[in-house]
Each structure stands twice: as C-alpha cells, then as structure tokens.
Amino acid sequence: MLWQQVVNGLTLGSTYALIALGYTLIFGVLNIVNMAHGEIFMFGAFVALMLVTTFKVNLLVAMAGAALAGAVLGYLLEVTALRPLRKRAVSHMAPLISTIGVSIFLESLALNLFGAQSQSFPPMFSGKLLDFGLFQISVIQVVILAISVGLMLVLKFWLDRTKMGKSIRATSENIDTAAILGVNTQRVITITVMLASGLGAVAGVLVGLAFNAVEPTMGIPMGFKGLAVLILGGLGNITGAMVGGLLLGIAEVFSVAYGASSYREAVAFGLIMVLLFLRPQGLFGSPGNGGR
Amino acid sequence: MDSLLNPYYLQIVMFVMINAMLGISIYLTLATGQLSLGNAGFMSVGAYTSALLTLKVGVPIFLAVPAGGIAACLLAAVIGVPTTRMQGLYLAIATLGFGEVVRVVALNLKVTNGALGLSGIPSMSVMTGKGLSELGLGSGVGILSAQQLSNIIVIVVLALMLACLVFFALRLSKSRMGRAFAAIKADEQAAEVSGINTTYYKLVAFFMGAFVAGLAGALAAHITFYIGPQDFSYHKAVEILLFAVLGGSNVVWGPLLGSFILTLLPEVLRPVAEFREMIYGAILVIMMTFRPEGLLKEGTIRFLWAKFNWRAKAEDDNSQPEPEGGR
Amino acid sequence: MILALENVSKNFGGLAALSDISFNVNAGEIVGVIGPNGAGKTTLFNLITGVFSPSSGTIRYRDKAVNGLKPHKITELGVARTFQNIRLFGHISALENVMAGAHCRIKANLWQGLWRTKVERKEERELRQKAKTLLQLVGIADEENTLAASLPYGKQRRLEIARALAAEPEVVLLDEPAAGMNESETEDLHGLIKEIQKLGKAVVLIEHDMNLMMNLCDRLVVLNFGKKISEGTPDVVRENAEVIEAYLGKEEE
To answer: Do C191 and C246 belong together in one domain?
Structure first.
C-alpha cells in the first residue's frame, strides 16, 4: 500500500517537476515568474489531443508536435510580453503582470477555440496493471514516468555539457557578466523561454494522459502547483525543481490516500506556507538567496 | 425616472462602489510596491465571515461587515509575516496561493455549503426596506417606491463608506506613513537605510489592503443575497489587479478610475462577452508595454489640477490633492 | 571615539571580501577610505549600516555593539549614508525625499496623520522648514518641488547627502560623492563636506579623487584586497611604500 502510493506519487510528481522546470529555467535567466506557463502547458495538451484524434498520429509524434507548438507560443510570449519590458526600466512586477495578461488571454482563447467541456485522449494503452509485488503500475504511468524522467535527464545533460546549455547557466548566474564574456544573452533568453515552454507543453500532454482530461481551465491549477514547486525548490534552482516536484506529487497522493482528498488542491500551497515560515530560501536554496 | 432607477442599474451602481473599494485595497498594498494577488481571497474571507455571522449567529449587518474585514486582516497575518521579509515575488505567489487555498476550503467546508455557496444572505436593501416600513414609509415617498428608496439609501451608505476610504487613502499619502510607503515603493533598500522600518510598513500596507478587501467582500455579500466559491477565483484577483494597472497605482484616483471603467466595460461589451477575458489580457500586456504607470500618474493629476483649479477650489477642499504634488 | 570597527571580517560564500579590519572614527572627524576597485570599500559601508552583518568582529557605535541590528535601527542610532549609484526616491519631490529621510526623527502616527492634529501639523511644519534648510545647505533650495528623478546628476548627489543629513546622524558615510563631477563641482563638494564637519558630524568618505582626499581628510584608511594596509594622516599614508605600490602607482593612468 505504502509503496503503491509512493509510485503513484512519483508518477504525478514527475509531471509537476517538468512544469516547475519551465518556471525555474525562465526565472534563472530572466529573474521573472512566467505566469503564462500554465496556459502554454494547457495548449500543449490540446495540440497533442488534436494530433492524436484528428490526424491519428502516434503519441510520440503528437508530443513532439505539442513541444513545437509550446516553443512557438514561448517565442510569441517573449516577443510580445517580455522583450518590450526589458527595453525600458520598469518595476520588477511588470513582467509578472504582463504574463498574467497573456495567461488569461490564452485561457479565454482556448475556451473559444476548443469549448469548455473536458475532452480525453482515445484509449491508447491497455488498462492492464503490471504487477511488481510491492506495487502495481499501469502502462500509462510507465510512459509518463519514462518520458518525464527521460526529458529531465536529457535537459540536465544538455545544460551541463553543451555550449548553449553552458551559456544558459552563465546567464542565470549573472546576465551582465555573461554578456561581457561574449554570450549573446538576447538569444539565450529567447531559447530558454522557448525551451521552457516546449517542456511545459509536453508536461501538459502527460498530465492530460494521467488524468484522462484536457480542458481550457487546466492551466491555472497546474500552473499554481508549478509555482509552489518553484518556491519549494528555491527560485531558479533546477535540481530543487525536480526534487520539489516529486515531493509535491507524493504529498498530494498521500493526502488523498489518508483522508483529505478534497483538499488535494490546497496541499501545494499549504506546503509552501509552512516552508516560508521555516526555510524561506526554499528547500535547496542557500541562506540569503531569499533575502532581497 | 423609473427606467433610470430600475433595480438593475441601481445594482450596477452598487458594484461600481464595491469595485472602487477593491481598487483602494490594491492601491494600499501597491503603495509600498508590493503586489498582492490575494485580494479576491480576502474578499472571499470577508464575504463568508459576514454572511455566516448574519445567517447563523444573527449578528446585525453593520457589525458583521467590519468583522469580515477583521477576519481578512487576521488571515493576512499568516501570509504577511513570513513573506514581507522577503522580495516582493514571494508575496505575489503566496497571496495567489492563499486565494486558491481559500477557494478550496470554501468548496469543502460544510458551514460554507461547498460548491453550492450560501444563499439567502440578509440583503442591505431588504433590511433598509423593512426599516422604512416600520417608519410607516412602506409605500414609498413621492414618486419613489419603497424598493427604489431603500436601494438609494444603500447606495448613499456605500458612497459614504467609499468617501471615507478615499479620504483615508489621500490623507495617508500626505502623512509621515505615506512618505515611508512612497520611499519603500521607490527603493526599498534606500528606504531602510534612511531609517524606515520597511518590514513593518510593508506589513501594515498589506494588512490595510486585506482589511479593505474583506470589507468590500462583506458588503458585496449583503448586496447579492448569494455567494459561492467561484465568485472569488483567480479571475477576480486578476480583475482587481487590472483596476490598478489600467487606472494607475501611483495615485489614489488611478485604481478608482480603473474600477469605474472596468465595471462599466462589460456592460458596453455585452455583444462580445465571450472575448471579455481576452480583452482584459490584452489590456494588461499593452499597459505594461506602453504605459506601465497606468492612465493616471502624478504628472496627470498635477496637469488636471492646474487646468481645472478654479472649479476644484469651488468644490471640496479636503478630498482633492493639494497643488504641490498630489500623490 | 564614536564609531569603532574591531577585527571585522566579511565572507561571501567562502570568498573573503574584508578580513580583520579595525579602525576608529572620532566625533567631528573626516576619515577617508581609499583603495583600488574591489578592495571592499562599499562592503565596509554595507557592514557599518547593517545591510550585511559581519562574519566576525564587532562594530561599535558609541560603545554599543551594532552588528546584527537592522539598517533602520542603525540609522536611528545616528549613522546615515549615501550610495555609490545614487538611490533616491525618484517619483517624489526633492523636498519629500529629505522629509522621508527624517522619518526616524518624527513621531506622528497614522491616526494623527489622518486627522491632521495640532501636534502633527506643527511637526510637519517644522520638518518642512528643516528640509528646506538642508536643501539650502547642499545648494539646491530652488529645486524643492522637482521630482528627484528629473534632477540633473550633480544635484541628485547633493539631494542624497541632504536626505542622509535629515536623519540627524552623528556619522555620515559618503560613497563616492564626487563620482562624475567636474572640477568646480568637486570644489563645491569639498566645501559642503567641510560644512557638514562644522555641524559637528563625523564624515567617512569613499572617493577615488586623491587630490580631494588628501586635502579634505583628517585621516585615511587604505584597503587592498579586503585588508587594511595603512592608516594615518594623508602625509603619512602618502609616504607608505606599500600604499604606493598597491594603489597610488596603479591609479595614475
């Protein structure tokens, strides 16, 4: 029973981690919270759904399509709502507000395009459970875990080893220094936003599969959870986002299993309120990061 | 006359006042440069507190409404104490999360009646109507029916409360505390080394905003008969934010103008109602790009003041900004 | 002795920004802090004003240890400062900037402010007068209604000094006040700092203009790579070989 909950928690948590990675990548480079991330996530789910139902492509192709659509949306977000604000000295709240604008724009657009009702993916996998003794796991859970963990590993490798990855990390460290060292920061920012949005879109597909529901309003609660993980793991901390996401997934599954199922949506923020009291810099931040 | 005083229009007027109060609530917190996205949550706390007090305990409305404000203020302490020590982003996210937690709690508690919400909340105009008939005015006065009369009385009461809040905000902005707020908004660290206890004032501003939001929520509950968890969602929080972003948050008049425009806009946009949220979203992005300080800023107020000085002087001297720099 | 640093060190993530710094500031004295860029001068100011707390060592103001106090408490005790990169309250007027600087010296609470009680009005009147006097002292009396952000650079520097003085400090810390000023403006600044000294205040000054420092300061403290390498009157410091090598020689270009 316990192991079963842990496995379920990890599966759910791996999708949260993927969402939170998008927030934390953008925060690292731009020092802003992208409030539209949840809606890009939701669009990703719809694009994959359309590809699967209308164009009958297989799931992996649909996911690639969603990632592409997410990246395009990320590019549009950067050009319309972020870049213009960097050109003039505005308060640090300005990007937060403009991305909130994009978020409700996209949500309403989705309502008009796809309708309010919840849609689901056609059954693609057998409902059979694979029995491992301690726990059982469904094929769809295996797919979700494999894809999200795989993407996280690829991302980590890419950030650590490639030139672009190193540029992103340098820019996260200090944008001015990176610029002096010859990093094209404008390009790094654009690519980071596109990458984060692409990841978010894939996460949308996975969550759509996990809950077997895709709807225009799914972006807000999922976006909130990503934000909670962002704080949980420490702003801009990539490892923190991964571990924080898994922890949140487990915490939620346990809260459902042990009674408080209807409060599941509040677990994320309950956790961060406790955390802010005890460890304001996040679980993995060093003291002082949370200061100012 | 009758068509102008129909209940629908009167209700819109009441909502203009409530939204103006919400505009002041976000202004008070923004006056220290802090962004609170929890005003919808505080509104919800105020609304439920006041509604439950009147419905289940039988507390009179005029006591239940301030109690709603106080309840919001108490919950604000839970979020404010840990987050005002940190950079503003934490407050924004924590308040956003707070709104969500409040919604989930209201959705699940028995006493709040879950997703169905509370109905049959004692209404201010009905109460006023009862009072009128006890005074023997049950059949109305002159051309006004009793219902119109009681609605008008409620509007007058709301207008007086709004006027008090505006007076409060204006006086505040010209006082020692208001200067501290402005200093923190401009440069928190410089304010701190100039001898201003920034953590304390940020907390005070946050409490004030929460109190006013709770008050407005409580009043809203007693206007509409009915409240439910979905009335205070993320979208309401964004709408309140929009008041300040569109109108401008550097002067009290900014959010007031913003709330006025945005309460009447849906009436005008009725034919394209399904695009309302898209328009709101676009307004946020466009304002941030082209006029981040909002429609009204200090300069605008000074300019208008200079232009209409003769007329403003003839009116009330107290509630107008002074020529040397209304804020 | 009004301000004393005793073996003060500051590390940032294992990197020593300042190590084992000790020196005193006496009442009414002008002390200069010099050293190449990155020597830790601004960090020193941040420690004294409580923006950072020292990793080890003690900072005393009038024999009271102030490490760990919040910056606004330290200002209230009597230490005020300006910033290397000017940090004014841009969207309020010059006069209001100075009045905000006097925040810890006035008392009116919210209630008094709301009703404009007699006490509050008197206090505000006196404060306004005091702020005007300070603007006059720094020579920008005619700009009192200008928004701080729209003042020209030199006047912003002066306004920042006026704001610091409004807190009625015993010690004023000035971080590169002459940066970006031409010769005659620097000359005026020299006069202004002398005026501040005449008010009985001690001044601690970071500045790269050696001419100004040699003429103005009673004493100099020389930092290099986070360590104090010399201290004494300008004449003594000028003769110190280590200083010449570490600093003066390099700065000539």
So the answer is: yes
Q: Give the model's pLDDT for residue C250.
A: 52
Spatial distance between the Cα atoms of C74 and C65, rounded to a whole number of angstroms? 10
In a domain, C30, yes or no: yes
Determine the residue of chain B that is closest to C76 in CA distance: B195
Residue ranges in chain A whose pLDDT is less than 50: 287-292
Pick the residue from chain B with its C-alpha nearest to C117: B175
CB pairs under 8 A between B and C: 106
What is the ipTM metric for this complex?
0.92
Q: How many CB atoms lie within 10 A of CB A146?
A: 11
Find the CB nearest A85 among B105, B277, B289: B289
| pLDDT score recorded for residue B315 | 45
Q: Do residues C128 and C103 both lie within one domain?
A: yes
Q: Which helix (H) or strand (E) holds C163?
A: helix C153-166
Note the pLDDT of residue B314: 47
Q: Does A287 map to a domain? A: no
Distance between C89 CA and the closest CA of chain B, angstroms: 5
Low-confidence ranges of chain C (pLDDT < 50): 251-253
User: What is the rounded CA–CA span in Å between residue A126 and residue A140?
Assistant: 8
In-domain check, residue C104:
yes
Q: What angle do CA C81, C84, C87 make, to 5 degrees?
A: 70
Containing domain of residue C59, as a range? 3-78+169-252
For residue B194, give the nearest of C103, C106, C113 by CB distance.
C103
Minimum-distance CB partner of B85 among A94, A102, A280: A280
Q: C66 with C107, same domain?
A: no
* Strand pairing category for C56-61 and C3-12: antiparallel
Q: Which chain C residues touch B174 with a CB distance below 8 Å?
A: 113
Asked whether the beta carbons of residue A227 and residue B107 sit closer than 8 angstroms, the reply is no
Question: Cβ neighbours of residue B96 under 8 Å, at least 6 residues apart?
Answer: A224, A227, B37, B38, B234, B237
- DSSP-derived letter for residue C39 is S
Whether A74 is covered by a domain: the verdict is yes
Q: Which among B174, B179, B195 has the least Cβ separation from residue C167?
A: B195
Count of structural domains, chain A: 1
C131 and C190 inside one domain: no
Determine the distance in angstroms separating the CA of B129 from the nearest CA of chain A, rounded to an integer.
41
Shared-domain flag, residues C148 and C178? no
The per-residue pLDDT for B327 is 38
Q: Which of the two residues, B326 and A191, has the higher pLDDT score?
A: A191
Q: Would the CA dihedral through C95, C101, C105, C106 be positive or negative?
A: positive
Is residue A161 in some structural domain?
Answer: yes
d(CA A208, CA A195): 20
State the amino acid at position C236 in one-letter form.
V
> Would C161 be classed as within a structural domain?
no
- Answer whether residue C84 is part of any domain: no
The answer to whether residues C143 and C183 belong to one domain is: no
Task: Find which of B167, B179, B187 to mutate to test the C interface (most C CBs within 10 Å of its CB).
Answer: B179
Cβ contact C100–B168 (<8 Å): no
Domain identity same for C129 and C9: no
Q: DSSP characters for A227-283?
A: HHHHHHH-TT-HHHHHHHHHHHHHHHHHHHHTT-GGGHHHHHHHHHHHHHHH-TT-S
The string of DSSP codes covering A89-105 is: ---TTHHHHHHHHHHHH
What is the number of domains present in chain C? 2
Retrieve residue B138's tokens.
């049950």
CATH code, domain carrying A16? 1.10.3470
Question: Which residues of chain B lie closer than 8 angstroms to C71, CB-CB?
Answer: 189, 192-193
Say how far apart CA B71 and CA B68 lie, in whole Å.
5
Tell me the CA distances in angstroms from A133 to A128, A137, A138, B6, one per residue in order.
Answer: 15, 10, 13, 70
Same domain, yes or no, for C45 and C114?
no
| CB-based contact B171 C113, cutoff 8 Å | yes
CATH number at residue C50: 3.40.50.300
Nearest Cα neighbor of A135 from A257, A32, A241 is: A257
